[in-house]
Amino acid sequence: MKSNLKMSRSRAVACVIAGAVLISAAHAAHAADPVTLNIVDVAGDLQLTQKGFEAFKAKYPNLVSNITFTNAPAPQLPGKIKAMQAAGRSDIDLVLTGTDALAAGIEQNLWEKLLPDHAAVFPGVLDNYAPGPRRMQDLAQGYGLEVAYMPAGPLLEYNPAKVTDPPKTPEQLLQWCKAHPNKLIYARPANSGPGRTFLMGLPYVLGDKDPRDPINGWDKTWAFLKQLNDCVPYYPGGTSAVMKELGEGTRDMTVTVTGWDINPRALGIVPADFRVQAFDNMTWVNDAHYMVIPKGVPKEKLEVLYKLMNFMLEPAQQALT
């Protein structure tokens, strides 16, 4: 009788242990399930980086089952994320942004603090940036990682069949625009890297009092833009629309930056023989794109995102940008 009781107890304990092992294994398997990542681009960055993200998914199918890519206007994104966070929702896992939405998100406390809070998962990441990109990385204040950098512009891109003597000064640009109304176009600076670079570069070219003070130091720039506005038909919501109109021949000239000069040609959106002109005596304005994570992303996704961000900063992926 005692022997049978001992055996029953032993079997019961064994069943409990086995059950616990099975439950633990089930939890582990569930935790290891690949995730879907939702990436929102407000900077036109995917034209440079989407192949890199897709390479990560192909290399790590055990981590990522799917990646959705969405484009959105930069000015609208911070408000959308703030509303989602207030509702306890997490629909966006990674944001690709320029300095505009980056700064707005920092001001509104929307982004996950990456450095130094999670420095252990980004070993030596800051040491890998060259001096120019490192200065732009510092603007992120630890809330994002810079994924693309360029000495941007401002530059003019034009159709040489229609523009035989391209402008080399803002005054020449204004005169050309007046003589060819509706043939110069550029996107709203609030949602366009080329538009923003043109706006930021003008105070230097025009010799304004303080190029770093738009309120008190840009008298010449605001006066110039007011005149230029008379011959610009409208300001599209993004640079992609501008390049499409330029490539189709609806417009003859636009403002651009180095990245937007190269990529639309490579994609066949803009003819390969279109040319670029810099302003005389201009000061280069740098531009950068960043990867940022909105607050509230689940832990199981955060671990995958950290690995993805490191992957995107490797030489093979950087070569694509």
From TrEMBL:
Pfam families: SBP_bac_8. Keywords: Signal. InterPro entries: SBP. The keyword Signal applies. Residues 1-31 form the signal peptide. The keyword Signal applies. PANTHER family: PROTEIN YNJB. This is Putative spermidine/putrescine transport system substrate-binding protein.
